[in-house]
């Protein structure tokens, strides 16, 4: 069984599309857990229409970890709320994950429907993923992250003291524990809204800076993500 875990905050314009994609999957042995960070819009209302479980969310690391606490599946799939993919995506990825005997994996981006500028950006990411897929510091992200639940628990889950790059941190910790990382050659369509709203240069520079600052331990001490990413992903805590 697969547990799909989706952290949300004010995702009414996107979550319905993702849940519809999941509803139409040929692979049926999965559950959906939405970790919502006190959304102020109709996110929860939309989620309930699809009979998905809603649990307490917060920042990305906390939301993903809390969703995993309720997961019944042997494989956890962490997804962002604004993804799209074809109807065989889960089936194809699950078979590839098992046939490669992987413990943790990421997918490539589908750039076919993007503008030329965005194609260049995401092809850079795809190339980085491919070139570093067998290294000790592979390129990956939490937008569509596959991991065995036993491995996730062994690694201690996402580091909740980190305000960004918690997904890369988890991947590297898992790889350093000698677990098997790989790429699933099936693609999903990501949202380009962060690049469009914050700016390509700022996001790309922010991604580079986050890696450097993560190594220096600065990210754990300061909420630099609000500046680097223009406040992207900021949520309100429940009072």
UniProtKB/TrEMBL annotation:
The keyword Disulfide bond does not apply. Keywords: Cell membrane, Glycosyltransferase, Membrane, Transferase. Residues 3-153 form the Glycosyltransferase 2-like domain. It comes from Candidatus Woesebacteria bacterium RBG_16_39_8b. GO terms for molecular function: glycosyltransferase activity. One of its GO terms (cellular component) is plasma membrane. Coiled coil: none annotated. It holds the Pfam family Glycos_transf_2. This is Glycosyltransferase 2-like domain-containing protein. Transmembrane segments: none annotated. It is found in: Cell membrane. Its main location: membrane.
């Amino acid at each position: 069984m697969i547990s799909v875990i989706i952290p949300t905050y004010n995702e009414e314009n996107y979550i319905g599309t993702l849940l519809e994609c999941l509803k139409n999957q040929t692979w049926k042995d999965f559950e959906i857990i939405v970790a919502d960070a006190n959304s102020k819009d109709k996110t929860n209302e939309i989620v309930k229409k699809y009979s998905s479980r809603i649990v307490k969310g917060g920042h990305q690391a906390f939301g993903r970890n809390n969703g995993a606490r309720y997961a019944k599946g042997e494989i956890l799939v962490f997804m962002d709320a604004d993804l799209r993919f074809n109807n065989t995506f889960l089936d194809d990825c699950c078979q590839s994950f098992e046939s490669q005997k992987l413990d943790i994996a990421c997918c490539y981006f589908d750039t076919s429907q993007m503008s030329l500028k965005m194609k260049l950006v995401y092809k850079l990411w795809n190339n980085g993923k491919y070139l570093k897929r067998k290294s000790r510091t592979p390129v990956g992200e939490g937008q569509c992250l596959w991991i065995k639940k036993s491995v996730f628990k062994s690694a201690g889950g996402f580091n909740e003291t980190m305000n960004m790059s918690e997904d890369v941190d988890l991947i590297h910790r898992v790889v350093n524990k000698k677990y098997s990382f790989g790429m699933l050659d099936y693609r999903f369509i990501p949202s380009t809204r962060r690049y469009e709203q914050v700016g390509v240069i700022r996001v790309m520079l922010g991604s580079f800076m986050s890696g450097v600052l993560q190594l220096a331990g600065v990210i754990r001490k300061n909420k630099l993500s609000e500046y680097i990413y223009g406040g992207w992903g900021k949520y309100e805590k429940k009072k």
